[in-house]
Design goal:
alpha/beta, two-stranded antiparallel sheet, 9 helices, disordered N terminus
């Protein structure tokens, strides 16, 4: 999901304090979740390296604690990390992601990569072909996707790989646009899938759609039926995708039954306050954007995530969930207009102390 950063100009808002190449070798002598712990309980941690690079500290019960340790002890068994092809500043690029994946494995967490096949954010509104690939013919682009995917497997070898991020209208536009160039889109996704299967047959492959609308999801996954993949991934944000949690459960049931796949809520989040901790406008800021039964409080945030989890667990096809933006605190300072649009939806309070929502990851 592309996170548009909006600016408040000069308006000052008081920041109120609120609470390897081998197919399957994931590393030897590294604690991993038990083999039978298959229900995915994940958090996206993509901003963590950038935050740590400027000295951001995180706390649990008032004591400084590494975020990976906090997540693992809370019950997380996987972390989700975005990967961009050639980002301008190196953030979320191959080197940074590889290092974060290795740290995560050492902490006993599985690695779920969300590969954007872009140099920056990819989502339903933008699927920009990497600059390096923009002048390639379609056949050359397909080869580039294959080679790049093979490199990802060799360098990082994730437990789960998402081939594309929120690809409602395809990826690598315009050549891979699902509506304008459907067969080319399917061909590119198939190339990525085949590369994963050839190099890491045990790695789970996910296809990711933003939304839970029955008609839209069915239209999309019907287009995907010739691709070899394991997991259907769905984004669910009440502000974008509706406030009826029963639709989450019914969508999982319908898609799982029709397409024979396990279904994961690949992205979700919820506010614990409407307040700000920097001068960057937040995605959510008032009651019209949330579900009335779940107020914007720490308890409401926790209850919402538990309700989403319960919707997934209630289905025979449900495979897990991931929290998005949980790490994205206001790490650039309280005066920053280029800070976080998400600090009020993080898993941490405004003083970077772990919130009660962490309990939603418990095994």
């Amino acid at each position: 999901m592309k996170k548009h950063i909006k600016f408040l100009g000069l308006l000052a808002i008081a920041a109120v304090q609120f609470a390897c190449s081998g197919d399957d070798d994931k590393g030897t002598n590294v604690p991993q979740p038990p083999a039978d712990d298959t229900f995915i309980r994940a958090s996206d941690i993509s901003y963590l390296p950038e935050m740590e690079s400027v000295g951001t500290k995180f706390y649990n019960n008032g004591k400084e604690e590494n975020m990976l340790t906090t997540l693992k002890n809370a019950g997380c068994n996987a972390v989700r990390i975005r990967l961009w092809k050639n980002p301008a500043n190196g953030r979320s690029g191959m080197a940074e992601v590889k290092a974060l994946a290795e740290k995560s494995r050492k902490a006993g967490l599985r690695v779920w990569l969300t590969v954007h096949y872009s140099d920056h954010w990819a989502d339903p509104g933008a699927q920009t072909t990497p600059e390096e690939w923009k002048n390639l013919s379609f056949d050359q682009l397909k080869t580039a996707v294959t080679t790049y995917t093979e490199t990802i497997i060799k360098e990082i070898n994730p437990d789960i790989i998402q081939i594309g991020n929120e690809i409602n209208s395809g990826l690598l536009w315009p050549k891979g646009h699902l509506i304008d160039n459907e067969q080319q889109c399917i061909s590119l996704l198939s190339a990525a899938s085949k590369a994963v299967r050839a190099k890491a047959p045990k790695t789970k492959i996910m296809i990711h759609y933003a939304g839970i609308n029955g008609g839209g999801t069915d239209w999309f996954f019907n287009k995907m039926k010739t691709i070899d993949y394991d997991y259907i991934g769905l984004s669910y944000y009440p502000i974008h995708h509706g406030k009826d949690l029963t639709e989450v459960a019914s969508t999982i049931d319908a898609l799982g039954e029709k397409y024979g796949k396990k279904v994961v809520i690949a992205e979700t989040s919820y506010p614990f306050t409407f307040l700000y901790n920097d001068f960057t406008n937040n995605i959510i800021g008032n009651n019209t954007q949330i579900i009335p039964e779940f107020p914007a409080t720490p308890a409401g945030q926790k209850a919402f995530v538990l309700a989403v989890r319960a919707s997934v667990e209630a289905s025979a096809h449900g495979q897990g969930f991931a929290y998005w933006g949980g790490e994205w605190v206001a790490f650039r300072g309280k005066q920053s207009a280029f800070g976080s649009t998400y600090e009020n939806q993080a898993l941490y309070s405004f003083d970077n102390n772990a919130l009660s929502v962490m309990q939603a990851f418990a095994k």
